[in-house]
Amino acid sequence: EALQRALPVLQAMGQRITHVGSTGAGQTVKLVNQVIVVGNCLAMCEGLLLAQAGGVDLDKTLEAISAGAAGSWMLSQRGPQILARDWRPGFTIALQQKDLRLVLEAADQLGVPLPGTALIFQLYRTLEAKGLGGDGNHGLMKALEALAGVEVGSSSSGI
Description:
By secondary structure, the chain is an all-alpha fold. The protein has helices at about 1-15, 25-55, 60-65, 75-85, 95-110, 115-130, 140-150. It contains 7 helices and no strands.
C-alpha cells in the first residue's frame, strides 16, 4: 500500500522501481550495489595497471575486453576516463567512502566478513588523506599507481 502511494514520486525520480522487501531491505540492496561497484572498480584499475605495465595498447585493451565477460558499466564509462587521466567525478571518493562505511558497519552487525571491500575502503582512505576526496571514485587507480610505481595512460610503463 505504501509503495503504491509513493510510486508516482518514485517514477518521477527513476525508470526502474524494484520493490525488494520490507522496511530496510532497500538500504541493504543499496549497500550490496556499493560492494559490487567498488569491486568492479578495483578489478578495472588492476587490469589496466597490468596492461600499462605489460606495454600493451590501452585503447585496444579496452576495446578487446569491453565486449566480453569483463565488460561492465564501470569499464566502459570510467576506463576511458582513466586512460585520459580525467578524474572528474560521476561519484566522488568522499561519497564512496561514506557508503563503504555504511557497508562495513552493516557487515559488522551481521557478522559478515568483507575483506575485499575493507581493502578498497583503506585504499580510498589513502586518497582522502592526500586531499583527493573530490575526485571520481575511479581515482582508485591513483592508489594502485602509487603502490606499483606505474602511471596508467602515461608513456612510461614503469618497467
